[in-house]
Structure formats: structure tokens, C-alpha cells
Amino acid sequence: MSKKSVSITVYGKVQRVGFRYFVKENAKSLGLNGFVKNLTDGSVYVEATGEENDLDTLIDYCKKGPDWARVEKVIITKTPIVEFDNFEIKY
Predict the structure, then answer these.
(1) Span 3-81 CATH architecture
(2) Which one, 2, 42, 56, 68, has least CB within 10 Å?
(3) Is the pLDDT at 2 greater than 90, yes or no?
(4) Given 16, 26, 33, 38, which residue is catalytic?
(5) pLDDT tens readout for residues 38-69
(6) Is 20 a catalytic residue?
(7) Active-site residue among 16, 20, 33, 86?
(8) Tens digit of each residue's pLDDT (9 = 90 or more) over 12-32
(9) Does position 77 have pLDDT exceeding 70, yes or no?
(10) Which of 29, 65, 27, 64 minimizes the C-alpha distance to 49?
(11) How many whole angstroms separate alpha carbon 58 and alpha carbon 72?
(12) Is the distance from CB of 76 to CB of 5 less than 8 angstroms?
């Protein structure tokens, strides 16, 4: 398999509900690298690199979110491969 990179933007009640931590922990468990951060419009933005099936699993997690979240829309964009050292929360 080959590495891929995606950006994921998640809209809805996704800030102040543990969404970034939820994404980080799931991404790390899948062996993905990248970052997650809150955007000023109230959405959460993710960039991730890894195997395609693991990215698909992360996308599924983002569509569901943690218990307190309410995901309304998810936009996924394939991006050029970016190498990250780990997966982190950016502030």
C-alpha cells in the first residue's frame, strides 16, 4: 500500500466537546501522522497522512465524533503527500 494525505474539515458542534483530542487519539492508534486544530469559524480542521484504509477509518471517526459532538458536515480533500513526524493538536 502507499501513503496518501487528506484534509478533513468538520462542521457542527465540534469545538469545546473534546473533538481534537478524539481525533488525535484515533489517528495515533491508526498510525497516522498530521495535526488537528480549531478554526475561527467554529469548525475543526485535520490534515493526516498514512495508508488509505487507515485514513478512511479516521474519516469515519470524524463523521461520528465524540459523544458530545454533533457533526453536521464533513468535507474531505485529497492533498499532496505531506510528511509529519507525529500526530498533534495545534493551537
Answers:
(1) 2-Layer Sandwich (3.30)
(2) 2
(3) no
(4) 38
(5) 999 999 999 999 999 999 999 999 999 999 99
(6) yes
(7) 20
(8) 999 999 999 999 999 999 999
(9) yes
(10) 27
(11) 17
(12) no
